[in-house]
Design goal:
TIM Barrel; globular; Beta_cellobiohydrolase; 9 helices; alpha/beta
């Protein structure tokens, strides 16, 4: 907040009086309004390390994972959503830091995969939820990753369900534009192994990408940064050729240090990637999925539930084995 006020005052002094007007809803840059990214003080990794100080793995998990800026995920478990996002964005703002938030509650979530099934009870319930999500953030600076996987797999959905989903996402983007003008929203675009760049460009556009700041890649997946950068550039080429515009993109690097072995659900031998920062072939490289959190009851996370923190998986991911 302090840095934002200083920047605003300086900018107004520098502008001619006739030009000192409020910027458009998408003109604000939250990275320039804050002094770095926010470290979630209540992440699953941080809670585990604090609760298990005598565990031989705790020091490595605390230093290599828990103190890295990561996204907090919000869904049906978050209680009153406007209160929850407001408290999180407010805590970050009080420290002059930029928070990363994931909205993960779309109706018929993970409809085809099933490992993370759930979400809002109806499309109208989702519209209410996401409006409150955006309202909670309000004018504070933030980055929001909107509904991971929602555009990745249409294989088992009817056209009516696809159209409904597109409407939910477009409506969500409209809410952020109206209520959270200092938030950059990235509409999720899956990963390089899911849909062709041309297909993804069409899905993004049909879901209202023009209203978003950009799109996100590789959330909860393992493809290398180079692979994602090539894919993001190809998506933008398709957007430009077909629709006449391009968008910035971000990459989830939290678990892509060893790349993908072709499996997406708790594969073995993966490694943490480049910590959250600006640039790196994309607009930002972000830790969106917490290393060590399970993808579901599968792979090296057999017997776990999606989102459960597994310290042994986290520990091995630090060293890549």
């Amino acid at each position: 907040m302090r840095r934002r006020l200083r920047a605003l005052v300086a900018g107004l002094i520098a502008l001619p009086l006739a030009l000192a007007v409020a910027p458009s809803a998408h003109a604000a840059d939250p990275t320039g309004m804050t002094s770095g990214f926010y470290v979630d003080p209540d992440s699953s990794a941080k809670r585990w390390a604090a609760a298990n100080p005598g565990d031989g793995r705790a020091s490595a998990i605390n230093s290599a994972i828990a103190n890295t800026p990561m996204a907090r995920w919000f869904g049906s478990w978050s209680g009153s959503i406007g209160t929850a996002t407001g408290a999180y964005a407010g805590a970050a703002d009080a420290r002059d830091k930029l928070p990363l938030l994931v909205a993960y509650n779309i109706y018929n979530r993970d409809y085809c995969g099933g490992h993370s099934a759930g979400g809002a009870s109806s499309a109208s319930a989702y519209a209410t939820w996401i409006a409150q999500f955006a309202g909670g953030i309000a004018n504070r600076p933030a980055v929001v990753l909107l509904e991971p996987d929602s555009l990745g797999d249409y294989g088992c959905m009817t056209q009516a369900q696809i159209t409904e989903r597109q409407g939910m996402l477009s409506g969500a983007l409209g809410q952020f534009a109206r209520q959270a003008p200092n938030t950059w929203v990235y509409l999720d675009a899956g990963n390089p192994g899911w849909a062709s760049a041309a297909t993804m460009a069409q899905r993004l556009n049909d879901a209202g990408l023009r209203q978003a700041h950009g799109f996100s890649l590789n959330i909860s997946n393992y493809f290398t940064t180079a692979e994602n950068t090539a894919y993001g550039n190809a998506v933008n080429s398709a957007l430009s050729a077909r629709y006449g515009y391009t968008k910035p993109f971000v990459v989830d690097t939290s678990r892509n240090g060893n790349g993908s072995n072709g499996q997406w659900c708790n594969p073995s031998g993966r490694r943490i990637g480049t910590p959250t920062r600006l640039g790196g072939g994309a607009e930002m490289l972000l830790w969106i999925k917490t290393p060590g959190e399970s993808d579901g009851n599968c792979g090296v996370g057999a017997g776990s539930t999606a989102g459960q923190f597994l310290p042994e998986v986290a520990y091995k991911m630090i060293y890549g084995y």
